[in-house]
Amino acid sequence: MSYNRLLKSRKALSAIFATLILIAIAVIAGTVVYMFVSGSFATVAANNGVSGQEKVTVSVATISIKNGVTVYVEQTGGPAATVNSLIIKDAHGNTIAAITGSFTVSGVTGKENTVALTSGTLTSINGATPSALTSANVGSLCTVTVTTKAGGSFVSSQVVATA
Questions:
Q1: 39, 52 in Cβ contact below 8 A?
Q2: In terms of domains, do 73 and 33 share one?
Q3: Number of domains in the chain
Q4: Domain containing 34: what range?
Q5: Does residue 24 surpass a pLDDT of 90?
Q6: CA quadruple 122, 73, 119, 123: dihedral sign
Q7: Angstrom distance (rounded) from CA 119 to CA 148
Q8: pLDDT digits (tens, 9 = 90+) for 96-139
Q9: CA distance readout (Å), 60 to 57, 71, 110
């Protein structure tokens, strides 16, 4: 009778090992898929193997009904980024307004409604106050999302809209 117990316990032990091996394979496969999706393996031959993701930091943003929107951005690496719009959102993530028209950078109007960023340089981007931004938005928390031609979206910290 003890021999029968030994055979049964061997089967149970095999099932446990098989389950652990399947879990390990699933975790490894999931890690590889995550790395592909997040861009860790994405390289661009034209950029000599530099990662294909833009790296832009939105340092400070201000929203004023009277003076418009000002965003300070810096490109910290990756391929050259070109800003093509500023999107203002409320605290719930709902879009209030979008600025896709002309921008001003250090007193020079952006050509073709875009602003090319220079790596390592803090750039001030100014946009006119959109008509959707009214005095009703004064005092509310908002964020400014900077979008690029390549499809990147970079969000500022929350700011209070002022008059």
A1: yes
A2: no
A3: 2
A4: 1-41
A5: yes
A6: negative
A7: 14
A8: 888 886 677 764 444 445 667 767 777 778 777 777 777 778 88
A9: 9, 6, 20
